Every structure is written in C-alpha cells, then in structure tokens.
Amino acid sequence: MAKRTYSVREYQAEVAALLPALPVAVTPLAGCRGLVLAEDLVAAVSLPPFDNSAMDGYAVRAADVAGAPVALPVADDIPAGRTAVRPLEPGTAHRIMTGAPLPPGADAVVQVELTDGGTEVVTVNSAVPVGRHLRMVGEDVVAGTVVLSAGTVLGPPQLGLAAAVGAAALPVRRRPRVLVLSTGSELVEPGRELEFGQIHESNSVLIAAGVEEVGGVAEVLRFVPDDVEEFRSVVAARAGTADVLVTSGGVSAGAYEVVKDALTGRGVEFVRVLVQPGGPQGSGLVDGLPVVAFPGNPVSAALSFELFLRPALLGALGHRSVDRPRARARAAAAMTSPAGRVQYRRGRHDSGSVEVVPVGGPGSHLLASFAASNCLIEIPEDVTEVPEGAEVDVVLLD
Ligand SMILES: Nc1nc2c(c(=O)[nH]1)N[C@H]1C(S)=C(S)[C@@H](COP(=O)(O)OP(=O)(O)OC[C@H]3O[C@@H](n4cnc5c(N)ncnc54)[C@H](O)[C@@H]3O)O[C@H]1N2
Ligand code: MOO
C-alpha cells in the first residue's frame, strides 16, 4: 500500500492530536518556571501590604520641616520588620529604614542624606513635600484582584509576583515526560572512540535539550541496537512511564529499519510528509503510549522536533501560542528546492537586517550548519528556484 502523505500543517495536527492537554497539578513555585498558569491567581494581600518608607531616613510631618533647617527629637527607631509602630507626635521624628512601616501621623520621609543623622535629636536640613519617599498600601496590587491570568507563561517576574502575593505553589499543567530513544547499531556514546563505520550518537542529546527547553522532562534511552525484539521489549517496559516516546532513525526504506519493523501494525503508521528534510515520519499509539518516530539524519530529526513535537508539547502544556515568530527577508544567495515539498534551509538573520543568509546546503546530515544558524528559511512546495534577492519567509529560532 502506498504511504499516506501529509502537508506540514496536516502532520502537525496529527502529532498534536496524539498529545492531549496534560493534567493540572499544584506545583511549588521553584518547579513552575516556563510553565503555563492554569487558573487565575487572585492576590491574597495588597502590595505593598502597608504604607512604608522608600528610603532610610526620618518619618516626619512635612509641615514640621517646612522651615528647615529644624531640629526634631527622635522619638522612635523603626527597622524594617517592625510589626507595630507608635504614632508620630507633632514636632517629633522617627528614624525609619527602607521598607519599615510608616507611623500613623507621618506624611513624608526625609532621606538621611538631608539630615545630620542624629539618633536623639535630628537636624533636618531640607524641607520635603507631603508624600515624599512614601510607598502606599495597594499602590502595586490591591488584595482580591487577579494578578496573573490563566494562560500566563511563568517567567522570573511572574514567579516573583506570585511569591510576593503569598502564593507558595501554583496550578500548572505538569511537565510532559518524554522518552527519547535512538536506534542504530552504528551509534556510539559521545566520549567514546569511534571505530570505522561508527558515529557518535547525537539525536537524543538534541531532542532531549529541545524537550527540556519547552518545559518537558526528557529521559534518554540510547543505543537500542537494530534488533526488533529488543526494541519492542524496551517500548513495552517503558509504556506506563512516559507521556510520549520519541525515536529517531530506522524509518526509511532500508533493509534494517528497526523502528518501522517493530511498530508497523502495532498502532504506528509510517507516512511521508511533504517536507525536506524530515520526510519519512511515523506516529501513533502503542498500548496507549503516544509514539512519534523521526528520521535518523541529524537535521531531519532536529527539524522533525521543531515542526511536529515542539508545538504539540507546547499545546499540551497549555501555551496559547505554539508557533515561532516569523519574518520576511531577502535571500542573500540563490537557492533551489525540490518540487512538491516545503524545504527548510538553515540561515542567519539578524534583527533589523533585510537579508537572510543561507548557511550550508540542503543536506540533512549538515549538523554544523544548523548549529551555526538562527533561523529556518521556508521555501514553499511550489517554488523550485529562489533567486538571490527574492523575498522569503523566515522562521526565527532564537
Ligand atoms: N532508498 C531510500 N533511502 C532513503 C530514503 C528513501 O526515501 N529511500 N529517505 C532518506 C531520508 S529523506 C532520510 S531522512 C533517511 C531516514 O533514515 P532513517 O530514519 O531510517 O535513519 P537511519 O537510516 O537510521 O539513519 C540515517 C542517518 O542518520 C544517522 N543517525 C541515525 N540516528 C542517529 C543518531 N541518534 N545520532 C546521530 N546520527 C544518527 C545514521 O547514521 C544515518 O547516517 O533515509 C534516507 N534514505
Ligand atoms: O527527509 Mo530526509 O529528512 O530529507 O533527509
């Protein structure tokens, strides 16, 4: 039977459908970075929670220092952290530190640099207006209001804010567990010496890094040899431990295609996507475990992750936007592309530049070219020649 063919969009939808939304779990803040908030966060407290000083200095009534220089008795000393403060009597000052609660009756703070720094009696050398160096309750956040809405991606500022309003943990879609499995008897762990005919295994490193970058947890199972029975037993043993299994290699037309041989007829369909690199693909459910099978060539595997698994993982994590930003730019060199397939060439595009420079050729083994790139140049299926200077679509990778 002829292989089913898919456009890139169609196959993206196919892989995304394999990965349903991940369950929501209330997770300590330290584990939330990069994840998506599943429910609105309502502030339990205002920010600031009380009127306080923005400077080290003296809490005063502005009217008492209007005729500066003036000397005022220092009636109290208020460090940050004081939980009760005495009211400020007219004609006196309280020494106060940054963040300490403002005593009732004070309406300004004179920073210490504008005084003689006295501890019994202070001489204030400059008049200040009402409100100087005060931070008022609720200026930033009013208790009971939504500070982070559902769908927000939790970066450092959002996590800091959650902590500031008193949340110790947040409801987020939990991280997907991704099993990354490389096949191929020629593969040797990096760090070990190669014999003739062997290569260092790199796809699992690249895919696992991509998984972690979007918030997943990758577990790498390397060097499953080209042995169908052994491959099946590894999949069966790990089926309950992951949200998705991603393999690379062993999907094309060769005599020893272990992934294809092991999974055909067991829930995985091997298809052709009209894209280059990354044409041969497989996906499906094996005993309830979503499996995506990428081609083994390093750039093919990388692009398969970029085009198919990355957006599916982001979608399952609850991200509203799963697509990379794009730009239009002029090709700095001519390129050719196969008819009937979208080609992704690797390139460099600097922000502000009108040009994109192709890096390396179209070959799916050219990993160094990919590593030297910061974008993909998308050449549509009906375009076979891109002349120098032609406008092209660019997918920005960083
Ligand atoms: N007769 C045909 N041959 C090929 C076709 C085809 O349609 N007809 N398609 C080509 C295309 S396109 C691709 S892409 C590859 C896909 O091959 P496989 O998925 O079966 O991958 P392998 O044969 O196992 O490996 C391909 C290549 O990549 C290297 N490799 C594999 N795994 C890793 C890894 N984990 N780390 C680093 N490098 C890896 C492997 O050594 C091979 O050089 O098939 C074409 N052939
Ligand atoms: O599709 Mo293969 O991925 O062109 O090299």
From TrEMBL:
Q: What is this protein called?
A: Molybdopterin molybdenumtransferase
Q: What does this protein do?
A: Catalyzes the insertion of molybdate into adenylated molybdopterin with the concomitant release of AMP.
Task: State the organism's lineage.
Answer: Bacteria, Bacillati, Actinomycetota, Actinomycetes, Pseudonocardiales
Q: Please indicate if the UniProt record lists Transferase as a keyword.
A: yes
Reaction equations catalysed = adenylyl-molybdopterin + molybdate = Mo-molybdopterin + AMP + H(+)
Q: Which InterPro entries match?
A: MoaB/Mog-like_dom_sf (IPR036425), MoaB/Mog_dom (IPR001453), MoeA-like (IPR038987), MoeA_C_domain_IV (IPR005111), MoeA_C_domain_IV_sf (IPR036688), MoeA_linker/N (IPR005110), MoeA_linker/N_sf (IPR036135)
Which family is it part of?
Belongs to the MoeA family.
User: What pathway does this protein act in?
Assistant: Cofactor biosynthesis; molybdopterin biosynthesis
> Which cofactor(s) does the record list?
Mg(2+)
Q: State the Gene Ontology BP annotations.
A: Mo-molybdopterin cofactor biosynthetic process
Q: Name one GO molecular function term.
A: metal ion binding
Task: List the Gene3D superfamilies.
Answer: MoaB/Mog-like domain (3.40.980.10), MoeA, C-terminal, domain IV (2.40.340.10), Molybdopterin biosynthesis moea protein, domain 2 (3.90.105.10), Molybdopterin biosynthesis moea protein, domain 3 (2.170.190.11)
Q: Where is the MoaB/Mog domain?
A: 179-315
Entry EC no(s): 2.10.1.1
Task: Keywords in alphabetical order, please.
Answer: Magnesium, Metal-binding, Molybdenum, Molybdenum cofactor biosynthesis, Transferase
**What Gene Ontology cellular-component terms does the record carry?**
cytosol
Family matches, as CDD domains:
MoeA
Q: Which organism is it from?
A: Actinokineospora spheciospongiae
Q: Domain of life of the organism in this record?
A: Bacteria
